[in-house]
Design brief:
268 residues; alpha+beta; Ribosomal Protein L22, Chain A; 2 domains; 7 helices; 13 strands
Length: 268
Amino acid sequence: MSYKAVSDAAIDIWIVREREEQLSGKAMHTYHSDSIALKDNSLFDLWTTHAEREESLKYGLNEEGRKSFLYRRAIRRLILRKYTKRQPRELVIESDSFSGKPMLGGQMSDVCFSSSSSGGLMAVAVGHEMRLGVDIEKETDDLSGKESLQLARNFFSTREYNQILRTGPPDSRRELFFKLWVLKEAWAKARGQGLGQPLDSFSILLQDSPKLLMDEREKDTQSESGWQLATFNPSAGYVGAIAYESRIPVNQLNINHVTREDFLNNMA
């Protein structure tokens, strides 16, 4: 497995699919727990910690759900291994004492990461000495433009609701809703708040590039300066976003779509 240095001026985003999909009538081979024998508990023993395996039993998951949970933990460790020269199980992943946000401990604490999964797709973002959050969502046709507007009215800020309201066709409203959703989630995750941050306490304005605006009641405790936000396309039918605060300007986002062969040859 090759070692990859973390760049101060770049963020790497790894896109990993959990299931096989059909593409043009042919099976597209991607990560799948069955296809790489993750049914074998010995591999979980190799790539995850005892604490993670114990954690997988806490949520009342069925066997497939538990394997998916451990699969995501294993993939996260295998990707971080590329930046640390450590074996997956040797990586110390701690939770911030205040926010609970996962982070690398010890001498690897300068390597920052965030992960997200939706609809069988996983994203892991890696950067250097920054606050970093990533979020992806699978767009669903079941959500109408009218429903998108109602959700925005209930959960988003007034500014964001008006952005969606001014958008024309229903499909455009749904697309804008998902884009705002992942941007807001990515920023909340970068701060370590997740859903603990009220979604109407800040606004994302989509202009030439996404811009963060804090609600007046939040400005005394949270700064909106220094944060950068961007969207990306993880795969067809998905939308993704990252948020980061870095002392060094980031001028490059590297999107890496990882195949089963990459995994077996270079990462495992």
